[in-house]
Structures are given as structure tokens and as C-alpha cells.
Design a protein that fits this description.
The structure holds two protein chains of two kinds.
Chain A: H1 2-8, H2 16-22, E1 27-31, E2 43-48, E3 51-57, E4 96-98, H3 99-112, H4 115-124, H5 126-134, E5 141-143, H6 146-163, E6 169-172, H7 180-193, E7 196-198, H8 210-215, E8 232-236, H9 240-243, H10 248-256, E9 260-264, E10 277-279, H11 286-304, H12 308-317, E11 323-329, E12 332-338, E13 359-360, E14 367-368, H13 374-378, E15 410-418, E16 423-436, E17 439-445, H14 446-453, H15 477-484, H16 488-505, E18 509-513, H17 515-518, H18 523-536, E19 546-549, H19 559-567, E20 577-578, H20 580-587, H21 597-600, H22 613-622, H23 636-645, H24 651-663, E21 683-687, H25 699-707, E22 739-744, H26 749-753, E23 756-759, E24 765-770, E25 777-783, H27 794-798
Parallel strand pairs in A: 6-7, 6-21, 7-20, 8-9, 8-18, 9-10, 18-19, 21-22, 22-23
Antiparallel strand pairs in A: 1-2, 2-3, 4-5, 4-23, 11-12, 11-17, 13-14, 15-16, 16-17, 24-25
Helix pairs in contact in A: 3-4, 4-6, 7-19, 11-15, 11-16, 11-18, 15-16, 23-24
Chain B: E1 2-4, E2 37-39, H1 48-52, E3 63-65, E4 68-70, H2 73-80, E5 86-89, E6 92-95, H3 100-110, H4 116-130, H5 148-153, E7 156-157, H6 178-183, H7 201-205, H8 219-222, E8 234-240, H9 256-261, E9 268-270, H10 272-278, E10 285-290, E11 293-301, E12 309-312, E13 373-378
The chains are: A alpha/beta, B alpha+beta.
Bound molecules: iron/sulfur cluster.
């Protein structure tokens, strides 16, 4: 039996050491992944001998409310592999500069003995410029020192500020919440210098426009633990198993708690398999399904039976009792603007009367002016910005009339359009006559308009569907089937279960929604369609309810203090924060390939709706609706100097001078002449993101017009047939950008196309903060090890 | 001179009742009212570094987000007591932001989310504005201060604050707008209520004042297939670019593990029917293209995909598995954004009106991409 001895002899079992050593470590440090996954999971990073050896999930998440399952363990199967990057072959180890550029720069510097002159000479020489621009994306990087890289960057900054102005220097970095200091580093640098930050949430198409439309809110959603509180979850355009991996357990667990789950997706995706029901709606047609759901809810739970919880909620928390003018347009009656409080005698002298609105009190039948409107927020008086049923001007309590059905002066036939088939319908709407300072007007309530729009027949005459089976009538269950491919029975069952659940639980139905919906052209309408069903059943502002949109890690929890640090507002006022989609549309010349939106967007015909999007952008910038940098076809400092020469002394006089110049068209907004050389963006910083590829809608146009390198676009220019305001130059400029600087820890596509790559610290090598909307914790990123090779944190690099 | 658009959560929300264009003489240009505003800034380019590393004095005037402000001058002063973390600029002393950790602690110390006293002040200010009782919400959290080392040591839940709309007392799960519903604080909209109806002139003219349905843009009109025509066996498909499965989130798909677990690239997912019609077998090389550009990859033929639609997971890197394109003359092919082009929805540009007022990442048209159509055809020759 000697072999038994062998086995227990420590000497012969030395090989086991290998396994023991494999799990040895010197220290454990908490960090996370700055990756816009919205996970924001806390991780323990294990370090041995100064090397990151592996990561494990942090297990110390506090328990919320005892009725909820715990958050931990959080983490996904991909995140756990992150440590690979630290020592990977694609790690950016040293500063690198494009060879073609560094040769030009060194030659000019040898000639002139001055970095700034060297840069100026390169830029003044079209051939030299073409040479390194053409090399973009084709390899040929050379290792450089930090000082060499910084010298070129500094020279290009100073050159650009002196020649064109600092608003030609731009930076892009996405989603600050994932590593907010790293974001703040670059933006603080840019803003203190007068440079421009490009937005990201809208550019990534993660911003749900319906949120500002409905709530005046960028995005605000439930943390994932609250899914468990829901009793009915509709999941659409979001593949939770795949993209919300650390949170999907709440979805699965909610079912053990009796929650009904329905998944809408064209494919049988990972979350569909968790669900009670999979509805294979045609791609992008979810809005039609929800229009029909709301049709049923309105008919059965608002009209046939007036569900008290729904009616009370709708009265109190939505604009439904507000009065809307009925106006005549080309011989047809249509809904117009909200009736302004300032337009009736009773309120004609109140402050900001154009921004206060009217309801009718059910008891007295009088007009009342509810507090809480934007007028009450900004009229300089405190204490009236609330949702109390109180007339903010008189202090009297009231109860709003939701519908004029019982008490009206007449029924009018208004025109409603269904854009799917371009059907118009005349539908009866109850109307009251109101005396205003401009004479008699006819009004109805928002609620009555909604009832008519959705086609709920309340005996008012006109083209209302009589049954759910009318295919031509908006928005019946039969109508939606044509678009979604889903039978009316499914709609009916869904709508009834939804409404009954909301009624019984007082609002515990929710929608989980994501990029699968938000990336469509009409995303705002699809979202609104779903949100209507939520609001009409009192499911917003309730635990277990909500329009829960998770697309991008947008929730930067400590945004109050952070916003000041990132924008340099602790030192200065006036920051340049740019709406990126407009910036790229105009500057990367994609507008020149765009036909008229009116030809592919379904719109009524009128002056505004027939404008080309580029002209609309010009109008938006002039009117102050949207920002645009570069600002003018002249350096800003020179404009101010000219104003001072013309006698302007105060800030207001300078502004007056500028307004005068604009009126005379002596000064032109850059957005209106984007192809003039003076208006090109010149220097672009990219950090924490993949701006030239991963997020570059119109990547090939970036290559052509920003970078001036090879591309595969064969697109035709067509905008000149449509645009009126924006100037179309006969030649279509290529290679607008002088320098692209990329901070990166890996050689990705954006690094490949940049001129200078700076080695950035990874998520296990720097101090930072991370928050998300999936949970309500705030996490650190920590340097488990010092940044490897020559890399540095973003904060240190921009510093 | 810095141009500033009319901003959300400012009095600019009540500036333009109608759409009028001063440049067309429809109204007078008045900065901040009928046109953007301008701010005159003194900028000393030699002081940028000094300012970067020190927290400037304007913090004394208070901080705000989403229209909810609070005073914090006393906390700024307290930062100046911390002798180890100061900077001196022109003889004046400031809190230091030089090191990453100093910046992290400045964020945490001055935010209502991680400093309970500041949250309390923000609720008190909200009380004044609204005439409602609100400060009881933060009463119990006044002493909370969370710093960077605390976060490293253990996981912390942040405070509730009026900056965010969910109520979190008693370990309650965060759900949006519970603050509005339970406390009667208005939404930051035109009427202060949730809006069914959007009465902006632009919304009425674009037909989106009432909730409605609009069909997706037709590919013929969208204009991405004007010159790309099907030659031989090619087919027009709607291309969707969902999140990838074998990536750390969307972007980081180039690790050895992710590449090994998947096909080593992002394939074009095709339905069984479409693939059969195109003579494409699973794992064949295909070109996915339109006028904008081309992406060459392998086909993944799957029963999961419905007819008429194809998938390419974003975000493809050009650093591996990128052959030359046959249909574009042998140039290196691109990635999933090669076939996209920006289309802006105009009514999302309106401003100066209630909730339709600009704020960074809050309002404006978005970079849509799902309405894109491409041609897909088999690649006869694969060259790298
Ligand atoms: S979900 Fe969690 S584990 Fe996965 S990448 Fe994101 S933070 Fe890391």
C-alpha cells in the first residue's frame, strides 16, 4: 500500500501548490466598470505582487426594504473578464503619434525652432495637411514621449484659439455617470479654455424625447429592485437577460411574487423565455399595439365604467382638465393651443398670464387658474408652484371638470388624422364658449380631445368606430393588427388584465423599455403611446409602476456638485455645451446627403413641416432653441474687440452690437455656413468613448469630412434642392479637422483613426465615482494597482 | 463671448409663445428672449491650469441641479480648513482639486446626495417655492456625510434629494415621480402636470400634439438606397443594431474570451427564409451595404430572426476581421455605422417653451438608426 503514503506525503503533493497559489493575493480593492452598461456593479479586485489577478463580485450590498430580494450578487459574465484588458496585446502602453504627422512636425520645428510656428506651417500647407490626413486609419503610429505628445497638442490648441477661437476645439466623452471624474477632467479642461463639450445621451439615441415631452425630465426611472413591486410588467425593446444581466433576477423573482410579465419583441429573445407571454410584434410597431390598448382602456375603464382610481389620478396629475381652444384651419375645426389665463377678463392682469392656464370648477362652473404652471414657477412669487386643487390667483379650492360631456354649449365635429393610412375622421367633441379679451372662443378639455383622438364613441356623432373590429378606424384592436401582426384578442386580454391590475393595486403596472424602441425615428411617439396607458391607469409615481427606460447609464446621481466642477462654473459663467446630433449632422456634412424630412416623415403640409432639417437647425440656433459651436464666422474675441472699437463699453452694449451685426448679416452664425473654412471644427478630443466608430452614426461621413481619409460612401448630395437658409457651397469640404487626440487604454477603432493616442488608466487603475439608475448606490472606482506602463488617469492627463 | 441657448429650469422656459424668426423680420432679436443669449467672459489663458486644480469661489453662491438649489458657502469654508488639501493661486487659498481623490471628495462633500445637510437645505428651498411641507423628508439624514474612503470601505446608498423625484425613506425602493405624486410637487412642464397634450406650435404643425401613431420612414424616401441597387442575388432588409451578447456592455468585444465565445466578429443575423432566398448558408461571408457604406462579415442564419429584418450587433471594431469590400472596389470595409446616416426629427428642435427648452443631454433630436435599410448579398471572394 505504499502508494497511499505517496499521496499524503507533502513532498509528492507539491503540485497542489499551483492551485493554492492561483488564489493567493496580497490585497483586495473595490472598483467597478466604467462601461455605460448601467450595471454599476461593485467588484473586488484581487492583486498579487502588483498584478491584478482576478475580480470577484462584491457581496456587501445593503438590503433595502425587507420585502425585496437583495441586490447582491451583482455583475455580469462579461464584466468579470475585464482584467484581461490590463495586460492585453491591445493595451495602449505609451503615447503614440501618427508617423506622417510627427515627421512633418519635427521638420517644421527644426526649421522654425518653434512648436507653434511649426503647427501653423503645417496647417497653412494643404499638401502637408492632406498627407497626414490621408494616413488616418492606416496604421503607422510611432511611440512618443509624453512631452512630445503634449507639445503638439498644446501647439494646436494655441494655434486654434489664436486663429479661429476656442469654440473650434471640441471634446467628446460619453456617459459621465460611469466614471464621472474622468469625464469631468476633460470637460473642465475644455470649458476653462472656452472649448466645447458634445452631448452624448441624445447622440447615442438613448435620450427618450418623450420624457421631456411628458414630464420635463431628461429621464427618471425606478431602480431595478422596484420591478419586484410591480404586479404587471410589459417589457419591450429591452433584452434584460442580455443587457441588464445583474438586474434581470428581479424580473424573474417578481414572477414568484405573482407578477404577470409580457415581453414584446420581434425575435424570441433572452427575456422572452422568462415571460408569461411573448408577443412577437413586428419590429418598430409597438406603438400601434399601445394605441389600441389605450383605446380599450379608455372605452372600458374610463367611459363604460368610470374607474374611480383612474379618474381621480387623471384629474389630479395630468393636464387632462386643461382647456384647449378649438380653431378653424382651412375650413376644418382642429384642436389649437391651451387657453391662456391672461386671455380672460378675470385673470387678464396677472403676472405671466400667458404661461398660466385654465380649468373649469365643477361646483361653480367658473374658470379657475390652477397653480403649478410654468408661469407660477417663474412669476417671481413663491408658494404657488404646486399641484393642489387651488386657484393660485384667488386661493380658492376647486374640483376640475375632466370632460364637458355633461355640460357643454355645443358639440363640434373636429378633424383627427390617422397617419398610418392617412385617414382623416370627423369626430364629435363637446365644446364650451368662453369670453376672452379677444372675443368669444370655443374650448374643450384635453381629456375630451384624448377621447376623440383614440376613437372612444361617447355618442357625440361623427366617425367613431362602433366596434373593436373596424380595421379602418383609429385606434381599434383590429386597426393595430394590420401594423403589428398581433390579433385583436391579444390586445383585449392585455388591456383588460393591465387595467384590472392597475385598479386593484393602485398603479402597480410598469413598462420596462429600451433601445429596441428608442432608436426608431418616431421613438417619441412609441414611448408616448405606452406612457398614455400608464398615466390613464395611475401607474406613474407609484412603487411598482413607471415608464422604466434603461438605455445608457445616464443617472449621474450627485449631478448638483459635479455639474459645477465639470463645467468650470466654480470660476466662470458661460459654458459651451453642444447638442451633438445637430453638430454632427451639420459639421460632418451629413445634411448634404439628406433629402427633405417631409418626404419620409409623415407630417401635415405647412410652412414649418416642409422645412429641411438643416434649415430647421439654423432656425433653432438663431432662435436660441438649440446651441451651436463654432458660433460665428469670425473669432469671438475679435467680435468683442470690434464692438469695443465701435464704442461698446458694457456687456449689454457688446450684445447690442452683436445683434446689430447679425441683423445686418455682417456677422453670420457658423451653423448657417458650415462649409466655409473659418467655421470648421479643428481639434477634437475623444476620451472614454469610441466616437469615430462605435458611436459615429454616419461613420463613413466622419471619415470623409472630418478626417479626410478613405471611405466607402457613394451617397448622393441632394439637400441643395430643398434648403433655403443654410448655405450650400459648390465644393463639399473634406478633412475639416486638424488634430484628433484620443485617450484610450486599448487600441480601438477611434484610436486607429486618431492622430495622437494617450495611454489612459483603466478602471482598476484610477480613482473615480460611478452611479446608475439601476440601483441607488454610489460606487468608487479605485486604483487596485498603479496605472501600468506609461498610462495615467484622465484627471491627471487633462490636468 | 459665449452663446447660450434658452435653458430649461430657467425663466427662459417662459420666453416664446409663438414660433417667430427674427432673422426673417418676424420679430425683434432680443437676446435670451427671441434669440439665444450671449455671455461675456474674461478668460486668462495663462491661468487655466491653476483654475483646473483648485475649486473656484463661485461655489460660495450655492449649487443647483434640475432647478433645485441650496447654499453651501459654509461647507466651502470648511474645505479651506483642511490644510492638506489646498491650493494657492495669486495669493488666495482654494480647496484643491489637484489629485483625483480630492476631486472625488469635493463632489461628494458638496452634493445633496452625499451630504445630508445640503439635501435638507434643498428641500427647504423647495418648500418656499411650492408652499408645501417637504423638509421632513430629509430630516433624518441631516448628519449623513459620505466621502470617497467610505465608498471604498462599504457600499452606501445615497440620500434622497429634490434633484431626483423618487422617495427613498425607510429603505423604500426608488421609483420615479413618487415625490410629485405623494407630495404634490409639479413636474417641470408647461402646466406642471404630466402632459397628454403638447400645444407647442411646432408640435401642432408636425401633427404630434396628440399621442399618435406614425409609420416608419419608407426606405425609398429615406434615401440610403438611391444608388445601391440589387445586382444578382441581393435583398433589401431593415437592419437593426442591438446590443451585442459577447461584449462587456456594447463596446468591449475585443477580448480574447469574448471573441472565442462568439464567432470572433459580429455576424449579420439573417432569417432562414431570407438566407435561403439569397443563397446564403450559415457562416458564409456577406456584404451588408447601402449608399452610406459597407460592412463585410459572416452570416449567422437563425430561426430567431423574422423575415425582412437583419441584425448586426453594435459596436463593431475595425481592428479585426475586416476584409476588403468587393462591391466598393476592394477598399477595406467598415463597421455597423458604415451604413447609418443621421436623420434629425425637426419638431424635437423647438425651444424656449416650457419643457421644450434646451438643456445638455435633455432636449433635441436624437441619433436614430433603426429605420436604416441595407442590401445583403453573398461575398464571392474574401480578401484581407
Ligand atoms: S453589468 Fe456590472 S459586471 Fe457587467 S460590465 Fe457592467 S458593471 Fe461590470
Amino acid at each position: 500500500m505504499s502508494w497511499i503514503k505517496d499521496l499524503i506525503s507533502p513532498k509528492t503533493r507539491k503540485w497542489e501548490e499551483f492551485y493554492r497559489n492561483r488564489w493567493q493575493h496580497d490585497k483586495v480593492v473595490r472598483s467597478t466598470h466604467g462601461v455605460n452598461c448601467t450595471g454599476g456593479c461593485s467588484w473586488n479586485i484581487h492583486v498579487k505582487d502588483g498584478i491584478v489577478v482576478w475580480e470577484t463580485q462584491a457581496l456587501d450590498y445593503p438590503i433595502l426594504d425587507k420585502t425585496l430580494p437583495p441586490y447582491e450578487p451583482r455583475g455580469c459574465q462579461r464584466g468579470i473578464s475585464f482584467s484581461w484588458y490590463l495586460y492585453s496585446p491591445i493595451r495602449v502602453k505609451y503615447p503614440m503619434i501618427r508617423g506622417a504627422l510627427v515627421d512633418l512636425f519635427n521638420a517644421e520645428k527644426a526649421k522654425t525652432g518653434d512648436a507653434l510656428k511649426a503647427w501653423a506651417n503645417i496647417q497653412a500647407n494643404p499638401e502637408a495637411r492632406r498627407k497626414y490626413q490621408k494616413a488616418r486609419g492606416k496604421g503607422g503610429f510611432r511611440r512618443a514621449t509624453w512631452d512630445e505628445a503634449k507639445e503638439i497638442i498644446a501647439a494646436s490648441n494655441i494655434y486654434t484659439v489664436k486663429k479661429y477661437g476656442s469654440d473650434r476645439i471640441t471634446g467628446f466623452s460619453p456617459i459621465p455617470a460611469m466614471s464621472m471624474l474622468s469625464y469631468a477632467a476633460g470637460s473642465r479642461f475644455l470649458q476653462l479654455m472656452g472649448g466645447v463639450n458634445l452631448s452624448f445621451y441624445d447622440w447615442y439615441c438613448d435620450l427618450p424625447n418623450s420624457f421631456p415631452e411628458i414630464w420635463g425630465e431628461q429621464t427618471d426611472v425606478a431602480e431595478s429592485a422596484d420591478w419586484y413591486n410591480s404586479k404587471f410588467i410589459a417589457c419591450m425593446g429591452a433584452n434584460l437577460g442580455m443587457t441588464r444581466t445583474p438586474d434581470v433576477h428581479f424580473f424573474a423573482e417578481s414572477r414568484h411574487n405573482g407578477t404577470k410579465t409580457v415581453v414584446f419583441a420581434p425575435d424570441f429573445n433572452m427575456v422572452a423565455k422568462y415571460a408569461d407571454k411573448w408577443v412577437p410584434v413586428h419590429a418598430g410597431q409597438d406603438g400601434a399595439f399601445w394605441m389600441a390598448v389605450t383605446h380599450v382602456i379608455l372605452k372600458e375603464y374610463h367611459y363604460d365604467k368610470q374607474t374611480p382610481y383612474f379618474i381621480d389620478y387623471t384629474k389630479k396629475y395630468t393636464d387632462s382638465p386643461f382647456l384647449v381652444e378649438v380653431v378653424e384651419e382651412e375650413g376644418k375645426l382642429v384642436p389649437g393651443r391651451l387657453l391662456r389665463a391672461g386671455s380672460v377678463k378675470k385673470y387678464k392682469d396677472i403676472e405671466k398670464g400667458e404661461w398660466k392656464f385654465l380649468n373649469i370648477d365643477s361646483k361653480s362652473g367658473d374658470l379657475v387658474c390652477p397653480g403649478g404652471s410654468s408661469g407660477h414657477r417663474w412669476d417671481g412669487k413663491d408658494g404657488n408652484w404646486n399641484l393642489k386643487f387651488e386657484d393660485a390667483e384667488t386661493g380658492k379650492a376647486y374640483d376640475p371638470v375632466l370632460t364637458l360631456l355633461e355640460n357643454n354649449d355645443e358639440t363640434l365635429q373636429l378633424e383627427f388624422v390617422e397617419y398610418g393610412k392617412n385617414n382623416t375622421a370627423q369626430r364629435g367633441v363637446p365644446v364650451k364658449h368662453i369670453d376672452t379679451v379677444n372675443g368669444k372662443v370655443k374650448v374643450t378639455t384635453v381629456y375630451d380631445l384624448i377621447m376623440a383622438q383614440y376613437g372612444v364613441d361617447r355618442g357625440l356623432g361623427g366617425d367613431y368606430p362602433k366596434t373593436y373590429d373596424e380595421k379602418e378606424a383609429a385606434y381599434t384592436p383590429a386597426w393595430q393588427e394590420i401594423l403589428t401582426g398581433i390579433g385583436p384578442k391579444t390586445v383585449l386580454q392585455f388591456a383588460r388584465e393591465w387595467a384590472r391590475t392597475a385598479e386593484t393595486t393602485h398603479g402597480k403596472c410598469s413598462i420596462i423599455i429600451g433601445a429596441g424602441i428608442n432608436h426608431w425615428y418616431h421613438n417619441n411617439l412609441i414611448y408616448r403611446a405606452g406612457t398614455m396607458a400608464l398615466m390613464l391607469t395611475g401607474c406613474i409615481g407609484v412603487n411598482g409602476g413607471g415608464m422604466n427606460h434603461y438605455v445608457g447609464q445616464e443617472k449621474l446621481a450627485p449631478s448638483d456638485s459635479w455639474a459645477t466642477i465639470m463645467s468650470g462654473k466654480d470660476w466662470q459663467k458661460g459654458v459651451r455645451l453642444q447638442q451633438a446630433p445637430i453638430w454632427h449632422y451639420i459639421n460632418s456634412n451629413q445634411w448634404r446627403y439628406d433629402g427633405n424630412q417631409a418626404d419620409y416623415n409623415t407630417v401635415p403640409k405647412n410652412d414649418l413641416s416642409s422645412m429641411h432639417s438643416a434649415d430647421m437647425a439654423v432656425k433653432a440656433v438663431r432662435n436660441g432653441w438649440m446651441p451651436f459651436y463654432p458660433q460665428y464666422n469670425k473669432r469671438n474675441i475679435d467680435i468683442v474687440k470690434d464692438a469695443e472699437k465701435a464704442g461698446a463699453k458694457t456687456d449689454d452694449e457688446i450684445k447690442d452690437y452683436v445683434v446689430g451685426q447679425l441683423k445686418k448679416k455682417e456677422l453670420v452664425h457658423s451653423v448657417a455656413e458650415p462649409d466655409e473654412e473659418v467655421n470648421f471644427p479643428r481639434v477634437w478630443y475623444i476620451w472614454r468613448g469610441n466616437a469615430i466608430a462605435g458611436s459615429a452614426k454616419g461613420h463613413e461621413f466622419f471619415l470623409k469630412h472630418y478626417l479626410g481619409t478613405h471611405n466607402n460612401s457613394i451617397a448622393e448630395e441632394v439637400a441643395d434642392q430643398f434648403v433655403k437658409d443654410i448655405k450650400v457651397r459648390s465644393e463639399n469640404p473634406e478633412g475639416k479637422m486638424d488634430l484628433i487626440v484620443n485617450l484610450n487604454f486599448r487600441m480601438d477603432s477611434s484610436a486607429l483613426y486618431s492622430d495622437i493616442i494617450l495611454p489612459a488608466a483603466s478602471w482598476y487603475e484610477k480613482t473615480d465615482l460611478n452611479s446608475t439608475d439601476m440601483h441607488s448606490f454610489i460606487h468608487p472606482l479605485s486604483p487596485a494597482i498603479a496605472p501600468v506602463w506609461e498610462s495615467k488617469s484622465d484627471w491627471v492627463i487633462f490636468r | 463671448m459665449v452663446n447660450v441657448p434658452i435653458l430649461h429650469d430657467s425663466a427662459g422656459e417662459v420666453s416664446q409663445t409663438e414660433v417667430k424668426d427674427w432673422s426673417k423680420g418676424e420679430c425683434e432679436p432680443i437676446p435670451g428672449k427671441t434669440m439665444h443669449d450671449m455671455v461675456i467672459v474674461d478668460r486668462d489663458y495663462t491661468k487655466i491650469y491653476d483654475k483646473f486644480i483648485s475649486l473656484g469661489p463661485n461655489v460660495r453662491n450655492g449649487l443647483a441641479a434640475h432647478g433645485n438649489g441650496y447654499q453651501c458657502a459654509d461647507f466651502y469654508e470648511k474645505m479651506l480648513d483642511d490644510k492638506d488639501h489646498l491650493q494657492v493661486v495669486d495669493g488666495k487659498v482654494y480647496p484643491s482639486l489637484c489629485e483625483d481623490e480630492e476631486a472625488a471628495n469635493a463632489v461628494l462633500y458638496l452634493s445633496s446626495l452625499t451630504n445630508g445637510e445640503l439635501s435638507h437645505r434643498a428641500y427647504q428651498n423647495a418648500e418656499k417655492r411650492t408652499g408645501l411641507k417637504l423638509a421632513d423628508i430629509s430630516e433624518g439624514a441631516k448628519d449623513v456625510r459620505i466621502n470617497y474612503k467610505d465608498l471604498q470601505a462599504k457600499i452606501h446608498r445615497y440620500n434622497q434629494s429634490p434633484v431626483w423625484s423618487g422617495l427613498m425613506n425607510d429603505d423604500r425602493a426608488y421609483s420615479a415621480f413618487t415625490y410629485n405624486v405623494e407630495r404634490l410637487v409639479p413636474w417641470r412642464t408647461l402646466t406642471g402636470r404630466q402632459h397628454f397634450y403638447l400645444d407647442h406650435e411646432g408640435y401642432i404643425k408636425f401633427g404630434e400634439h396628440l399621442p399618435t401613431y406614425k409609420p416608419s420612414p419608407r426606405p425609398e424616401a429615406y434615401g440610403e438606397l438611391r444608388k445601391s441597387v440589387a445586382t444578382g442575388r441581393a435583398k433589401v432588409l431593415n437592419v437593426l443594431t442591438p446590443h451585442g451578447k459577447w461584449h462587456i456592455h456594447s463596446t468591449y468585444g475585443d477580448t480574447l474570451r469574448m471573441l472565442t465565445l462568439s464567432r470572433g466578429m459580429e455576424p449579420c443575423w439573417l432569417s432562414v427564409e431570407d438566407a435561403a432566398e439569397l443563397g446564403i448558408q450559415d457562416n458564409d461571408w456577406v456584404e451588408v451595404f447601402n449608399d452610406n457604406g459597407v460592412y463585410s462579415t459572416r452570416a449567422c442564419v437563425s430561426a430567431r430572426i423574422p423575415k425582412g429584418v437583419c441584425f448586426v450587433y453594435h459596436a463593431v471594431e475595425r481592428t479585426y476581421s475586416t476584409p476588403k469590400s468587393q462591391i466598393r472596389g476592394g477598399k477595406r470595409s467598415g463597421m455597423n455605422n458604415s451604413f447609418t446616416r443621421v436623420h434629425l426629427k425637426p419638431n424635437l428642435m423647438v425651444g424656449g417653451y416650457g419643457q421644450f427648452t434646451y438643456h445638455f443631454n435633455y432636449w433635441g433630436p436624437v441619433g436614430v438608426n433603426r429605420d436604416t435599410h441595407v442590401l445583403v448579398q453573398k461575398m464571392e471572394k474574401v480578401e484581407f
